[in-house]
TrEMBL record:
Belongs to the thymidylate kinase family. Residues 14-175 form the Thymidylate kinase-like domain. It is an enzyme of class 2 (transferase). GO terms for biological process: dTDP biosynthetic process; dTTP biosynthetic process; dUDP biosynthetic process. This is Thymidylate kinase. Keywords: ATP-binding, Kinase, Nucleotide biosynthesis, Nucleotide-binding, Transferase. Its EC number is 2.7.4.9. Pathway: Pyrimidine metabolism; dTTP biosynthesis. GO terms for cellular component: cytosol; mitochondrion; nucleus.
Length: 181
């Protein structure tokens, strides 16, 4: 329906390695769209405020140990528990800028060696973004940034694998943004 599609909000996802600059770009985009008069919200995954999000957060802080498959499914469950609200927001005309989504789920878990098809399965049925922006920073450059290394996964060798996984993900809504190195 043309009327609905023109009045709904856009789902914009930002992706990339840890410390690639998603948070900064997300707030710049938010400010821009807000100033243009759009109804817009900034979201991020994991959403650490839910029960599932708290389990994820303690895993990332190395306070809890979980099987790789189990944490993968928790990340996905964290998206599913927000999916109805997400759809409602978009339908009511609010544009969502989302810092990480299913692509992070698949890229990070498959970088650990989990089967990519298995990783993708629990994501099937979640809303497809209108646009995915991948901030392409080199893993080496990211390590130089403030706050790096505080959480699980924030290690150069692992981030190199994640970068490869990201670039192997096929998606037509994927836009590669090459930042100066
Ligand atoms: N992460 C994030 C995953 O491994 N799977 C996912 O599905 C999502 C959404 O969590 N290193 C990883 C990527 C990050 C970490 O993200 C937390 P952030 O943007 O630092 O809060």
């Amino acid at each position: 329906n043309k009327e609905n599609s023109s009045s709904r909000g856009a789902l914009i996802v930002l992706e990339g390695l840890d410390c690639c600059g998603k948070t900064s770009q997300s707030s710049r985009l938010y400010k821009y769209l807000d100033e243009q008069g759009h109804s817009v919200e900034s979201w991020r995954f994991p959403d650490r405020d839910t029960g599932v999000g708290q389990m994820i957060s303690s895993y990332l802080a190395n306070k809890a140990q979980l099987d790789d498959h189990a944490i993968h499914l928790l990340f996905s469950a964290n998206r599913w528990e927000k999916s109805v609200l997400m759809e409602d927001k978009l339908r009511s005309g609010t544009t969502l800028i989302v810092d990480r989504c299913s692509y992070s789920g698949v890229a990070f878990s498959s970088a650990k060696g989990l089967d990519i098809e298995w990783c993708n399965a629990p994501e099937i049925g979640l809303l497809a973004p209108d646009l995915v922006v991948y901030l392409d920073i080199s893993p080496e450059k990211a390590t130089e940034r403030g706050g790096y290394g505080g959480e699980r996964y924030e290690q150069l060798e692992f981030q190199k694998k994640v970068a490869k996984s990201y670039l192997a993900l096929p998606d037509s809504s994927w836009k590669l943004l090459y930042l100066p190195r």
